[in-house]
Specification:
By secondary structure, the protein is α/β, with parallel strands linked by helices. It has helices at 3-26, 35-47, 105-121, 144-150, 210-222, 224-228, 266-287, 306-320, 338-343, 376-390; strands spanning 51-53, 60-64, 71-78, 129-135, 158-172, 176-177, 181-184, 186-195, 199-200, 235-243, 250-251, 254-263, 290-299, 302-304, 325-326, 346-354. It folds into two domains: 3-185 and 301-394, Aminopeptidase, CATH 3.40.630.10; 186-299, Alpha-Beta Plaits. It is built from ten helices and 16 strands. Helix 1 crosses helix 3 (105-121), helix 1 crosses helix 10 (376-390) and helix 8 (306-320) crosses helix 10 (376-390).
C-alpha cells in the first residue's frame, strides 16, 4: 500500500477514531482500575471481527492474521490515566474528578484501535501475525507489562518483536523521534523511615535528634553518585519528600523520606542500592537510632534494538520525509515497555503532537493542561499499519 492509499484509508476512519479518543479522554481510569476502558476496547475489537481476550483483570489482547502461524509481532498501547485534576476546559474533558489522561494514553489506545480497524480490512495481505496489546498499569509499579509477560502475553503465538510509540508534546506534528540503544532509565521508588526516641528539644540527651540524623542521611545520599560511578555514567538520586515533626520544641520520634533512583546502567543501579543500604546502617550507628530503607524496584532501562530502530527510521523517512525523522535524545524518564525490550527485540519511538507552527507555552507530559494536536493520530496510525505491511523485509 503506497502512502497516498494509506492516508486515504486513515481519512475514511479518522472521525471515528477522534470520537474514540475523546470518549476515552472523558472517562479516564487509574492504573489497574481500567474496567470500563477495557470493556470499551474489547467490545470495539470484537465488533470489527478481531479475536480479543484478557490475560489480566484489565487490559485486552487482540490477534490479527493467519492464526495458524506460530510467531507474531506485537504492537503495544497503554490504557491507564493519572491522578491529576484536568485543567484544559475541553468540551470532552475528564468526567472523573481527579483523574486525567495527562500522558497521552488515550491517544495511544485510539491510534492502535484505528490501526486495527484498517489492518482487519487488509488482513489477508499480512505476512506476519499482529498481536495488539492494550496494556493496563503503565503508570504504577510493578507495571502492567510485567504482569502481562508473567501471564504469557509473549506466547501463543510467540512474539518475535515488540513496537510501541508515545506522544511527544515538544515535537511538531508530522515528526517522529527514534534512536537505538538505551533511551530511558530504570526507575526505583525509595522509602526511608528514621525512628528514634522523641524528646523535648531542650533535653536532647534524653532522646534522639532524628532531624539531624535526617540531614546527615540526605547529605550522604547526595554525595553517593560522586563515589560509585564513572562521571560519564548518569545516576540520579532524588529525595522528593521529607515528613517529620509538627512542633517547634520537640524532636519527632519518626521522620519519613521518599524519592527516586534512575540510571541507564543496571550495574550502577545495583551498586547504588547496595551503597544506600550501607549509608543507612552507618547513620543508624552514628546517631544511635533505626534507619529503615525500603526500595521498591521499578522498571529496568529501556533499550531499543539497533536493527529495529534503523527500520523505524527508514520506514518513517519513507512515510513522513527525510527531515521529519529525528534522533531521540535519551532521557531519565522511565517506561515499563522496557520489560518487553528485556525479552524480545523491541523499539519505542516518539510521535510529535505539537501543533504546526505553534510558538506558545508547551504543556508537557503529566501536565494538567496537556492538549496534544489530534492530527498526530493520523501519523501514529500510519506508522503501525506500515510496520504490519512491511515487517517481512527485516526478519
Amino acid at each position: 500500500m503506497n502512502n497516498e492509499a494509506l492516508f486515504s484509508e486513515i481519512d475514511e476512519i479518522f472521525d471515528e477514531v477522534i470520537k474514540i479518543r475523546r470518549t476515552l479522554h472523558s472517562l479516564p481510569e487509574l492504573s489497574f482500575q481500567e474496567f470500563k476502558t477495557t470493556e470499551f476496547i474489547q467490545n470495539y475489537l470484537e465488533d470489527i471481527g478481531i479475536k480479543a481476550f484478557r490475560l489480566t483483570e484489565t487490559g485486552v489482547v487482540g490477534l490479527l492474521g493467519d492464526l495458524s502461524r506460530e510467531t507474531c509481532i506485537a504492537f503495544r498501547a497503554d490504557i491507564d490515566a493519572l491522578p491529576i485534576e484536568e485543567q484544559t476546559n475541553l468540551p470532552f474533558a475528564s468526567k472523573n474528578k481527579g483523574i486525567m489522561h495527562a500522558c497521552g494514553h488515550d491517544f495511544h489506545t485510539s491510534i492502535l484501535l484505528g490501526a486495527a480497524r484498517i489492518l482487519k480490512k487488509f488482513e489477508t495481505r499480512l505476512h506476519v501475525n499482529i498481536k495488539l496489546i492494550f496494556q493496563p498499569g503503565e503508570e504504577k509499579l510493578p507495571g502492567g507489562a510485567l504482569k502481562l509477560i508473567q501471564n504469557g502475553v509473549l506466547k501463543n503465538p510467540t512474539v518475535v518483536a515488540t513496537f510501541g510509540e508515545h506522544i511527544d508534546p515538544e515535537t511538531e506534528v508530522g515528526h517522529i523521534s527514534v534512536s537505538g540503544g538505551t533511551i530511558m532509565a530504570s526507575a526505583d521508588e525509595l522509602y526511608w523511615v528514621i525512628r528514634g526516641k522523641g524528646c523535648h528539644a531542650a533535653q536532647p540527651h534524653l532522646g534522639n535528634d532524628t532531624i539531624r540524623a535526617t540531614t546527615a542521611l540526605l547529605d550522604s545520599l547526595y554525595k553517593l553518585s560522586d563515589r560509585i560511578r564513572d562521571p560519564l555514567e548518569p545516576l540520579l538520586l532524588a529525595v522528593t519528600s521529607v515528613n517529620g515533626g509538627n512542633a517547634t520544641n520537640v524532636y519527632p520520634s519518626e521522620v519519613k523520606l521518599s524519592g527516586t533512583l534512575r540510571t541507564f546502567n543496571d550495574d550502577v543501579r545495583k551498586s547504588a542500592l547496595e551503597n544506600i543500604s550501607k549509608i543507612c546502617k552507618f547513620i543508624a550507628n552514628a546517631y544511635d537510632l533505626d534507619v529503615e530503607f525500603n526500595p521498591l524496584l521499578g522498571y529496568p532501562p529501556l533499550k531499543n534494538d539497533i536493527a529495529l530502530s534503523n527500520y523505524i527510521k527508514d520506514l518513517g523517512i519513507g512515510l513522513l520525509g527525510n527531515t521529519k525523522v529525528l534522533d531521540f535524545k535519551p532521557k531519565l524518564w522511565a517506561e515499563d515497555f522496557a520489560f518487553y525490550s528485556q525479552k524480545v527485540p523491541s523499539v519505542f519511538w516518539f510521535l510529535g503532537t505539537k501543533p504546526k507552527g505553534y510558538v506558545g507555552e508547551i504543556f508537557g507530559l503529566h501536565s494538567a493542561k496537556l492538549n496534544p494536536d489530534e492530527l498526530a493520530i493520523k501519523f501514529g496510525i500510519a506508522m503501525f499499519v506500515k510496520i504490519a505491511l512491511t515487517y517481512q523485509y527485516v526478519q
